[in-house]
Amino acid sequence: MIRIDGLRKTFRGRGHPxxxxxxxxxxxxxxxxxxxxxxxxxxxxxxxxxxNLLERPDEGRVVVDGVELSALREDRLRRARQGIGMVHQHxxxxxxxxxxxxxxxALEVMGVPRRERAARVAELLDLVGLSDRAGAYPxxxxxxxxxxxxxxxxxxxxxxxxxxxxxxxxxxPETTGAILTLLRDLTRRLGLTILLITHEMDVVKxxxxxxxxxxxxxxxxxxxxxxxxxxxxxxxxxxxxxxGPVPALPETVLLDVTLAGRTADETVVSTLSRRYDLDxxxxxxxxxxxxxxxxxxxxxxxxxxxxxxxxxxxxLREAGLAVEVAR
Amino acid sequence: MISPDLAPMLWQGLRETAYxxxxxxxxxxxxxxxxxxxxxxxxxxxxxxxxxxxALLGLVVNVGRSLPFIxxxxxxxxxxxxLVGTTIGTTAAIVPxxxxxxxxxxxxxxxxxxxxxxDVIDAARAMGASRSQIIFKLLLRxxxxxxxxxxxxxxxxxxxxxxxxxxxxxxxLGDLALRYGYQRFEDDVMxxxxxxxxxxxxxxxxxxxxxxxxxSHR
Lengths: 327, 218
Prior knowledge:
Helix content of chain A: 25-40%
Largest interface: A-B, 29 and 21 residues
Strand order of the largest sheet of chain A: 6-7-8-3-9-10
Largest sheet of chain B: none
Strand content of chain A: 25-35%
Oligomer: heterodimer
Number of helices of chain A: 11
Low-confidence stretches of chain B: none
Distance between the termini of chain B: 52 Å
Mean pLDDT of chain A: 92
Radius of gyration of chain B: 20 Å
Low-confidence stretches of chain A: none
């Protein structure tokens, strides 16, 4: 649904040039929620803005829904953008228009005739659960309500693709949860494909099917969430399930075990105790139900020496688990 | 002692001031909007980025802003003659008033339009809005409270400038105060015009504030 090849974007301002996106390839399949995570300054935002050509890439191709946007001239591009919804971190609503007026603005831009607009606005506000606040101005709405207006507006053109620029970063955790549920729900109901950027791991957990980790303009890892987590040394796994500092336990070996994908339901603890006759303590970890399936990481403390534990580690790895010896 | 001519004189002066300021306001609102919006659009990163034009426009505006009104009034006499066929009278005074108010209002318009957030403009672009849609449906509409507040300031400034219109025989309340009240020591005329001017400015400001508040939903 979205395909990006060899994307590069450098900003030449007054200072020295900054390469924000440095050769990114990306493929988002239809119906998928694809998240790009990374710290601020990693180039996520520029990448997203290059997808609907708000920024024109220096190099590379951008194809959305079969149309090569990067090859389009301004007038054709405008038409194509109407089929791509965008949700913004700070909502970007017009303060001079009501919630309904903001949604109607998108319809006006698209040239929807006046008499058809009212019904469509009502339908869109209903879709995001905001019918009762149609006449309120943005200043009278809470953050979550503003973002609901933003989402309704983004859906005005019946897009097949939604771009989300840190849609929940300005919201409190509870509201974030409600907005994520709404997005997940809309994806299923409307068959949307979503490309989102975020620095919040909760968004990845609750929404994403696939993820790319971005740093200094490049993807350092990318793929389906479960595959990435299960990969040994995965940065994503560490960010999603942080285990904290290694505790000082004398004469003990610490094993960090990652459960994801087909190993999500491995009976690690009983395997260690029964087959390898080891006493196992759980000293840290979490297992959660993600949008992409159950996954987690466990930190296990096993008394003994590394030599004594070695066969067990090999056995777990042969079973497909990512195991790191923390100490 | 209050002269019996006072009321008709004040009425005459008020009408002349209203005429000069009214027409000058209309013309400078249009001109100021045009120049102010162009200042924003042609700036670096603007929707119609064109640095040389922006620099030229900025220079012209600054020259206009730096000339004291009384000097501008005299300096553009040939221009006034070419435009309205005369250099004296109320209509002739409208030309320098407008020329002076356009750059004044343009800077206010520029500031008001710049207040519209970059993110809102990006959102409109992402929806597929055209440049003209962004300018007319978004920028000018979102900036409305600031534009109205700025126009109020411009009207008040124009009322002040119009006091100097007497130099070219423009008449008006300021001229009345200068000729009768100041030069002929007729205190009743002086006090009458001052009171009237205060009342007029007060009304203009109140009306402007009311409209701006109605338009603002921030």
